Each structure stands twice: as structure tokens, then as C-alpha cells.
Amino acid sequence: MITRDLFPLLQCPTCRSRDLYVADDGLHCASCTHIYAFADGYIDLMPRDTTYGYVSKYVSDEAELAEELDYRDLAPPLLAAGVRDRALRRMLRWRPSDVALDNGCGTAKHAVWNARHVGLMVGSDPATLFADEAVATVALAKADSRSLPFAEDSFDKAFSIDILEHFPIDVIDDYLAETARVLRPGGRMLAFSNTREMSPIQPIINLSRRLGRLFVRAGVYDFSREARRKSDHLKSLETWEDVLAAFDRAGLRPVRVVFWNSLFTTFVEHVLMKLGEAVMGRMKDEGGRMKSANPKSDHNDSEVPHPSSFTLHPSSDGIAREIRARRRMRSQLRPGSPVYYALMGVTLLMELDLWLFGWMRCGSYFILVEKPRSPG
Ligand SMILES: [Zn+2]
Predict the structure, then answer these.
(1) What's the pLDDT tens digit per position in 170-214?
(2) Paired sense of beta strands 364-370 and 155-161, if any
(3) Residue 18 phi/psi, 5° resolution?
């Protein structure tokens, strides 16, 4: 949505002037005279006359992905997305007065799920694959994280879910520096991402994968869709030390860390859900497609209800069929339905990984950082 509440936070993303005024067609910068148009549900605040070396695939392939992703309709926060959302809420501890930024929001699902807990929820992304519910409840900006259109000290809290693993180091540095700039002193940021590190309990985790593969061999389940997944994860922060150094360069101080050793998570994703899907597949026609509604993913490879997990399919017929199947699945997912409660139970089982093994260093991590109140 476009809300007046956002205007006092804005600055020109091109020249950084705060001298902006509102006209019918958009926001005008009095200093560099660029116009930032009001689009359908968001403001186009991309910096002008700027070219960047790195462009996200969500920007370069936006039209294609828009057709592919069925991004307009959000499922409730369940399974891996639910675990992340619950961790986000626990670690950021929303207050009703908070002004919050989902920096690199994608569909803005986490912004939607948390908007009612804060005073103002802002979502920012260079691609505009925003969900309908986000357009209705979140202040949205088409913006580049290397030159955010927000003034210094604008936000109490910010979050970054499944973002850092996509960027090269120089973009990570710009992204974190800009996030730090727009946070107020004492403001906090929560990031979820992945390094290349292995969990110390990886051999046990792999048992679930092996069990899952046995199902495939036994013909219980077909993994071919998984194999089609395309990854654009760079993981240029390779180790935990790299992560800490990056936040340190941005002047952000670690407050709390929770690792995600995916013992229960992998069991759920590779065994439990697969069995459930195989059963459902036998019960319903086209049932094999049911799984596409789930944030199916290989957790260690970083999770996915983020669009990155959905590969581009060759046939538009297949896409249409899949979108129909997802819609059907989502209609059964309404809060209060039996399927919803079952999946919530499974979500809590996955969350046990955070409670039991959150202290054990591994590749997937939540990190809460703070912008110091007095610099230095
Ligand atoms: Zn300007």
C-alpha cells in the first residue's frame, strides 16, 4: 500500500536529499528533480541514473517469475517458513510503536505476517512480486538495498530473511551498511541466512535423507521435482567468522545467535511430508502435485518459500496446473482447518531443532544485531 505514514521517512534514493514533495503523479525531489511514481500499491523509489554490477534474478527475470510464481496469494506461516517467522518474532520482540523494515521483502510475506504487531511495517524490494495481502497491509517501496530511499535512523527494527546468501561480498557490505544507516541507534536487525558450514550432527541428519531416498527407490515417492530446483545461492559468507566480520564492518553488534541444525526439520521434509504427500497422492487425482503448496525445500540449502526455490518450468500448461493445485491446497490451509493444525504440529516439531540444537554452530543461522547507541 501507499501510506502517508511512510513519507516522513523518505529521502531521495538518487541524491539523498530529504526535500521531497508530494504531487498527484508521485514524489518529486526538489533537489535533483527526479520523480518517484506512485505505482499500483507501491512507490517506485529506485535510484535514477545508477547502474549496478550485480542484479538480482528477481529483477532480471521478473516478468518470467511473475508468471511462474503465483506470488499474489499467501499461505499461512507453516513448516520451514513458519519456523523462521516464529523465530523472527521471538528474537525481534515487536512493540506496537515499532517502525519496521523488511529489507528485500520478496512477496513481503514476513512483513504481512508481522504487520499487525507493529506501528508501521515497510517492505522494500527491487522486484515487485508483492502478494495481494502485502499491497493491502504493508507500506511497499520498489527500492535497491544499496541505496535505500529512507533517511538515517528511520527504523526501530529491520529484518533480512534469505537474502545474504544471494549476494556477492561487495553487495552484502552495501546492504548491511545501508540497513545500519536507516536503523536508529539502539535499533535491531534480525538476519536469517546460510554459510557453507556443516552441522556437527550432519551424519545423523543424513539418515533422514537416506530414508527419503529409500522411498524413491521403493517407488513411494518421486523426487524428480526436487532435482529440477535451480539454486542462485552464492553463499559468499562461507564461514561463521565471515558472517561476524561482515556485520562488524557495518558497525552492527551481535546480540544473539540461534543456529538451525536441521535434525527434525530434515526428518519432516524428507520423510514425514513425503509420506504424507505419497498418501495424499493416492487419495486424490493429480495428488502428486499437492506437494507444491508446501515450502518444499532442502533446508540446508536454505529454505524456500522464497521464490528462488521454484524453478522455471518449460511448459506453461504445467505451470497452470501447478498453480491450480497450490490454490486447492491453500484453501485447505485456512487457520482452524484440520490440515492447518496438523501442519502447525509439524512446524513445532521442526522448531525443536532451534530449542535443542540452537547453540550448536552450523550453516543456517539467525543473528540478531544492534546498532550501537554511541558510535565507537
Ligand atoms: Zn534527489
Answers:
(1) 999 999 999 999 999 999 999 999 999 999 999 999 998 888 888
(2) unpaired
(3) -100, 5
- For the domain covering 4-370, report its CATH number: 3.40.50.150
d(CA 127, ligand 1 centre) in Å: 21
pTM of the model: 0.85
CA of 36 to the centre of ligand 1 (A): 10
- For residue 49, the CA-to-ligand 1 centroid distance in Å is 11
User: What percent of the chain stands above pLDDT 70?
Assistant: 82
Dump strand ranges (E) for the chain: 20-23, 26-29, 35-37, 43-44, 99-103, 120-125, 139-142, 155-161, 183-194, 253-259, 364-370
With CA atoms as reference, report the closest residue to 230 among 57, 55, 53, 54: 57
Residue with the larger pLDDT of the pair 68 and 62: 62
Distance between CA 243 and CA 246 in Å, rounded? Answer: 5
Question: How far, in Å, from the CA of 48 to the mean position of ligand 1?
Answer: 9
For residues 191 and 367, the answer to whether their CB atoms sit within 8 Å is: yes
Confidence of residue 126 (pLDDT cuts 50, 70, 90): very high
The rounded Å distance from CA 281 to ligand 1 centre is: 56
Could you tell me how far CA 177 lies from the centroid of its own chain? 19
Q: Ion ligand 1 — residues with CB under 5 Å?
A: 12, 14-15, 17, 29, 31-32
DSSP SS3 for 161? strand
Question: What is the CA(18)–ligand 1 centre distance, in A?
Answer: 8
Report how far ligand 1's centroid is from the alpha carbon of 175 (Å): 20
What residue segments make up the domains of the chain, in order of their start?
A: 4-370
CA–centroid distance, residue 57 to ligand 1 (Å): 27
Q: What is the CA radius of gyration of the chain?
A: 21
CA of 141 to the centre of ligand 1 (A): 16
Measured in Å, residue 161 CA sits from the centre of ligand 1 at 29
Q: What are phi and psi of 24, to 5 degrees?
A: -60, -40
